[in-house]
Amino acid sequence: MDFKADAQRMEKIVSLCKRRGFIFQSSEIYGGLSGCWDYGPLGVELKRNLKNYWWHVIVHERDDVVGMDGSILMNRAVWKASGHEDTFTDPMVDCRSCKARLRTDQVIEKKGGRQCPNCGGRDLTEPRPFNLMFKTYVGATEDESSLTYLRPETAQAIFVQFKNILEVSRKKLPFGIAQIGKAFRNEINPRNFTFRSREFEQMELEYFCRAGEGMRLLDYWLWERLKFYENIGISREKLHARKVPDEERAFYSKGTYDIEYDFPFGRQELEGVAYRTDYDLSQHQNASGKSLEYFDEETKQRFVPHVVEPSAGVDRTVLALICEAYSEDEAPDEKGKMEMRIVLRFHPRIAPIKCAVFPLLKNKEPLVTKAKEIVALLRPHMYVFYDETGAIGRRYRRQDEIGTPFGVTVDFETLGEKDAALRDTVTLRERDSMKQERVLVKDLPGILVSRIS
Ligand code: GAP
After folding, report:
1. Beta carbons of 408 and 357 less than 8 angstroms apart
2. Which residue ranges have their beta carbon within 6 Å of ligand 1?
3. What is the model's pTM?
4. What is the spatial distance between Cα 387 and Cα 91, in angstroms, rounded to a whole number?
5. Quick one: which atom of ligand 1 is closest to the CA of 202?
6. 167, 264, 348, 360: which could form a disulfide with 6 (CB 3.0–4.6 Å)?
7. Index of the ligand 1 atom closest to the CA of residue 155
8. Computed over its alpha carbons, how large is the radius of gyration of the chain?
9. How far, in Å, CA of 136 to CA of 160, rounded?
10. How far away, in angstroms, is 154 Cα from ligand 1 center?
11. For 337-387, how does the pLDDT look when each residue is reduced to its tens digit (9 = 90+)?
């Protein structure tokens, strides 16, 4: 591993994200807010495409999964029963010299004792638990009775709505409930750009099953999820399924995998796939006094279902997509001289803009009119972008840099001025190979739709 090259690569990615409007620091004009990020015009498209594809694959393409959208604020009793109020903590250490607040695993262990990674100081407090949930108050009074938390995961809303959803959807085991939404954790040290944030989004599926099916479904969902990442353009070589060892696993889990990705800053978790047994539903059943049992019509038995949970981070996946897509190669400039090209090689399925349309010259009215007609033709099918400013090579380069997979150029052939046989044809350029083909305007929607889906 070349640490210097990887650090430089990450710097370039962060700078591109800002320069082209993928990701900005939250509240930037006030100096930012640590661990919080805003997605700009391109970032929001990328994020939306990812979430829509996840929803499509997990909910719409299956008979055995339904969706829900729970509230961020929930009764505090939920967090007591789930165990978050007592145990959702990171051990934390303070450095008395530089006042840095550190996660215990960041402290440098040396022969002479523990050392602060910030200032090298050795005057450190003993580790103590720090709860990662953000507190808030519901209503006008600010006391214990109105205290609750911003949810640190979306999963609990699924567990507490299990019975309602079972009744309305009339699903039989095994079946799942899916949700995408915001989660909040007061991380001690947010870092690596958006990787560890304080506000982020999760895509979670709780797949309920019988006790005997848990281990098989754990493996099933691991492979489904690996396939998903490959289908959005993440290379299999950079994905790793790590079996979480017994001593690291939550006590109630019978098996957990971390799906990890080789980021430029190291191999890190993208998603957890965990067999959580009947722990969650049992906890809520016991605490609420309401039955969360399933009645099996065939065996006439009642029992609390078990659950397998694939839980993915939207922001981490977006970051992995950008890291995976970033590349530098060479392309000819206007005079045919080779120059460096930055290109985001997004899979067309998740690219923010699918196709850019260019009139060859902006001061030739028939070219502009035709290009705008093509934009109108494509718009019902995909997100398109019209650009008439600058030399055509520059315009291609601008789109390469944001990962637009296709470019359509309207030229004099399109108008039939040089050869009547070429009337109503355009050049279609592919981003990665830079190859151009001549296609009929009327065929464009069909060709592009088949290549982006
Ligand atoms: N319901 C289970 C659960 O929340 P988790 O491993 O704590 O499990 C699941 O979180 C996923 O959420 C992680 O794999 C990661 O992708 C994402 N995630 C967790 N904490 C995050 C953070 N501080 N910033 C960004 N993403 C985070």
Report:
1. yes
2. 153, 155, 185, 187, 196-197, 200, 202, 204, 269-272, 309, 311-313, 315-316
3. 0.95
4. 52
5. 12
6. 264
7. 1
8. 26
9. 20
10. 10
11. 898 999 999 999 999 999 999 999 999 999 999 999 999 999 999 999 999
